[in-house]
Amino acid sequence: MDIFLQQIINGLVQGSIYALVALGYTMVYGIMGLINFAHGEVVMIGTLVTISVVGLLVKLGVPLALAGVAGLLAAVAVCMALGWSLERIAYRPLRNAPRLTPLITAIGMSIILQNLAMMIWGRNYLTFPKLLPQVDFEFAGANFTAVQVIIVLVSALTMGGLLLLVYRTKLGMAMRATSQNLQVASLMGVNINRVIAAAFVIGSALGALAGVMVGTYYEIAHYQMGFMLGLKAFTAAVLGGIGNLAGAMLGGILLGLIEALGAGYIGDLTGGFLGSHYQDIFAFVVLIVVLMFKPSGLFGEKTGDRA
Amino acid sequence: MKKALSAPNLIIFGVLMFAFVVLQLGLFPGNYPMKLTILYLLALCALFGLGMSFRQHLAGKLLIAAVLVVLPFVSATAGQAWVRILDFAILYAFLALGLNIVVGLAGLLDLGYVAFYAVGAYTWALLASPHFGLHLPFWVILPTGALVACCFGVLLGSPTLKLRGDYLAIVTLGFGEIVRIFMNNLNAPINITNGPQGITLIDPVAIGGFKFSGATQIFGYTLSGPQKYYFLLLVLAILVVIINQRLQNSRIGRAWQAIREDEVAAKAVGINTRNLKLLAFAMGASFGGMAGGVFAAMQGFVSPESFSLNESIMILAMVVLGGMGHIPGVILGAVLLSILPEVLRYGVGPLQTQLFGKMLVDPESLRLLVFGLALVLVMRFKPAGLWPSPERQRELVEGRTEVKP
Q1: Position B260 in a domain
Q2: Contact A98 B177 (CB under 8 A)
Q3: Count of CB atoms within 10 A of residue A269's CB?
Q4: CATH at A217
Q5: Is A23 a member of any domain?
Q6: Residue B256 is inside which H or E element, if any?
Q7: Residue A249 lies in a domain
Q8: E strand segments, A9-131
Q9: CA B194-A276-A252 angle, 5° bins
Q10: CA angle at residue B57 from B52 to B58, to 5 degrees?
Q11: pLDDT value at position B12?
Q12: Mind telling me how many Å the CA of A247 is from chain B's nearest CA?
C-alpha cells in the first residue's frame, strides 16, 4: 500500500511538470496546428539559465532565496524572448508553407538550440543549486519532500492562472477565436500575429517554470535534457487531446501517474519478466491504446480533415 | 519544363561543391593528392549534373551511369573513409525512398520509421552471427528481414488507421521508441538482443562464395570492402528507385496520392483506404527492413544506439528537405544530408585553426549547429524542398487555396 501511495505522489509531481510543458505544445498546436519540436529545448535553456544566474548571484554574496527568485525570473524572461524569436524567425515566414515544412524547421531549431546550449554550458552534467531546504514529510507510510509539495502547488496555481487568462481576458478570447478559425478570426479584427506570438511567449514562460522545477526536483541539468522531457510532454498533450488546455493538464498528470505506477508495479505484474527499465514504454503503450479507441485523445474534440 | 526546374537545384549543388573545394583547398595547402581528388569529384558532379539535365536520353543515362561507376574509385584516392561515406549516402537514399512511400505518396506522417530499419538490422544480426550460432545465406536473410519488418509495419499500421496527421505522427514516434527500448532491454531473462552492448561479429554479405568485406582482386584491380558494398547498394538502390517509380504511376500509387490529398474524397470514390494505408506501411517497412539488413552486414555490429528517434527524424528531414513525393528530390535530400555532416566534420575543425590560429568552438557542436541552420534556411527559402515535383511546385506558385481549419 505504501508503495502505491508513494508512486502516486511521485507521479503527481512528475505529472505536474509534464502538464506545464505540455501546455506549451498544446497552445501552439491549438492555434497554428504546428508541433513546436523546439519547445523541450526552451525548457532546457530555462533550467540552465537559472543555474548560471543563481551561481553568479551567490558568488556575489546575494542570499540563496533571493538568488533563486532572480534565477527563476531570468529564466522566464530569457525563455519568453526565445519563444518570441522562435516564432518570429522560424515559423512566421512559413505560415503558408506545406504542412511538414515548419516541422523540419522546428527540428532544425531544436538542433541549433541544443548545440548553442552545449557551446555555452558545456557537455557535462551540471548540478542545480539547492534552492529549497530539505524538509521531509511522512503520510500513511509514504515520504515526500517540501520540493514536491511546492512543485504540485505552483503548477496547480499556474494552470489556474492560465485558464483564467484564456477564458476571462480579451487576449484569451482572441486566442480561442484564432484556434477555432485563423482566417475568420483575423476578419473579425483579431491581430493574428499578436495572438500567435502571445501563445509562444506564454508557452515558453510556462516551459521556463517547468525547467526550474525539473532542476530543483532532480538537482541535475544537461544540455540534452529537453529532448526526452519534450517528447513525454508532447505525448501527454496528445493523450489529452492536442489543442485542448484542460486536456494537456490532465494528460500530463495522467502520464506522470501511469509512468510512476507502471515503474512501481511492472515487475509484479509480469512476474519479474519485465523490469522497471521498461518505464518509458508505458507512456507510449497507453498512448497507442487510448488513441485506438479515442482517435483524437481523451478530451479532444473531433477534428475535421487535417491530414 | 523539367530541365528548367532542375537548373536552380544544380546551381545549389554546384555552389555547395564549390564551397567544399574552397574549404578543402584552404585546409590542405600542401596536400596534392587530396586537392586532385576534390577536383576530380567536382568534375564528376558537373558531369552528373549534365547527365541529369538530359536524363530522358540514352546519352544522359550512360553519362550518369559512368559517373556512378567511377565515383567510388575517385573517392578512394582520398581514403576509404570517403567510400564508406558514399555507402552510407546510398543507404540513406534507400531508406528515404522507403519512407517516401509512406510520407510522400500516402501522406502518412511516420516519425518511427527507424523501427523497421532496426528490425531488419536485428533480424540480420540474429540470423547471421555467432550470437545464436546461425549463419544463414544472403538469399534467406534479406527476404526474411524484409518480411519481418513488413509484419511490424502492419502491426503498427493496423491500430493507427483511424488516426489523422499529427496524432499518427506521435503514435509512430512512440512505436519507434518502444522497439528501441525493447532492443535495449531484451537481454534478460532470455538474452535475445544482447541489450545495450549490441551484437558483434555479424557476417558480411556473401553471394555465392563472393564476400563483400575485405579486399579482392578483380581483373588485376584491387576492390576494397566499402567499394564492393558501394556497388551492391547501388544495385539495390536502383531497384528501389525503379519500384518507386512504377508504384508512383500505378493504380496503387495514384490511390495513395488520392488518400494523401483528401482521405474522405478518396474513400467516397471507392478507394479501399484501409488496405491501401496498410499496404503503404508494409511496403515502406519492408524497404526499411532490407536497408537495415545491409546496414548490419556492412557494419558487422548493431546496437540500439544506432536506432534512436534522431535517426527517424533525420530520414524524415531527408524526404522533406529534398522534395516530398518526388524521387530525384528525395535522393538529393538523402545524399546532401548524409554527406554534409561528414564534410563539416572534416572541414569545421581545421578551418577554425586555419582562420583564427586556434580552436574557438567545439567542432562537433559547430558542425551540428551548421546542420540545423541548413535545415532552417532551406525550409525558409524552399518550403517545398530543394527539388519538388513539378506538380507540387505549380500548386505552390499558384497560391494556396487550402484553408486551415
Answers
A1: yes
A2: no
A3: 11
A4: 1.10.3470
A5: yes
A6: helix B251-261
A7: yes
A8: 126-127
A9: 125
A10: 105
A11: 60
A12: 14
Rg (CA), chain B: 22
Cα radius of gyration (chain A):
19
- Locate cell 525493447: which residue? B182
For position B147, which CATH number holds? 1.10.3470
Which of B324, B287, B290 lies closest to B106, judged by CA? B324
Chain A closest-CA separation from residue B163 CA (Å): 5
Task: Annotate B309-345 with b (16+ C-beta within 10 A) or e (fewer).
Answer: bebbbbbbbbbbbbbbbbbbbbbbbbbbbbbbbbbbe
Adjacent-strand bridge partners of B128: B135
Does A280 contact B171 at a Cβ distance shorter than 8 Å?
Answer: no
B176 interface with A at CB cutoff 8 Å: no
Whether residue B24 lies inside any domain: the answer is: no
ipTM: 0.85
CA distance A74 to A208: 9
Domain that holds residue A95: 2-293
In tens, the pLDDT along B220-272 reads: 677 777 888 888 899 989 999 999 989 888 999 999 999 988 888 999 999 99
Q: Indicate the angle between helix axes B32-53 and B58-76, nearest 10 degrees.
A: 160
- Residue B134 main-chain phi, psi, to 5 deg: -95, 140
| B405 min Cα distance to partner chain A (Å) | 6
Mutate to test the interface with A, among B262, B273, B365 (most CBs of A within 10 A): B365
- Number of domains, chain A: 1
Q: Which domain holds residue B224?
A: 91-342
B216-218 and B221-223 beta bridge pairing: antiparallel
In a domain, A303, yes or no: no
**Would you say residue B69 lies in a domain?**
no
Q: Calculate ∠ Cα B94-B316-B299, nearest 5°.
A: 45
User: What confidence tens digit (pLDDT) does each residue in B304-363 have?
Assistant: 888 988 888 889 888 988 888 889 889 988 988 888 888 777 776 666 676 676 666 777
Q: How far apart are CA B28 and CA B179, in angstroms?
A: 44
Q: What is the pLDDT of residues B172-215, one digit of tens each?
A: 888 898 898 888 888 776 777 887 888 888 888 877 767 777 77
Determine the straight-line distance between the first and last CA of chain B, rounded to whole angstroms: 34
Number of structural domains in chain B: 1
Check CB contact of B340 with chain A, cutoff 8 Å. Answer: no
Helix B225-248 / helix B58-76 crossing angle, nearest 10 deg:
150
Helix (H) or strand (E) holding B207: strand B206-207
Which three cell numbers, joined as nine digits, stand for A20?
506545464
Q: Which residue of B has its CA nearest to A113?
A: B369
Alpha-carbon span A184 to B274, nearest angstrom: 34
pLDDT in tens, chain A (307 residues): 577 888 889 899 999 999 999 999 999 988 888 888 899 999 999 999 999 999 999 999 888 889 999 999 999 999 999 999 999 988 999 888 887 888 889 989 999 999 999 989 988 899 888 887 778 887 777 788 888 999 999 999 999 999 999 999 999 999 999 988 888 999 999 999 999 999 999 999 999 999 999 999 998 898 988 888 998 898 899 888 888 889 999 999 999 998 888 877 776 776 666 666 777 788 888 888 888 888 888 887 655 444 3
- Does residue A299 fall inside a structural domain? no
Q: Is residue B83 part of a domain?
A: no
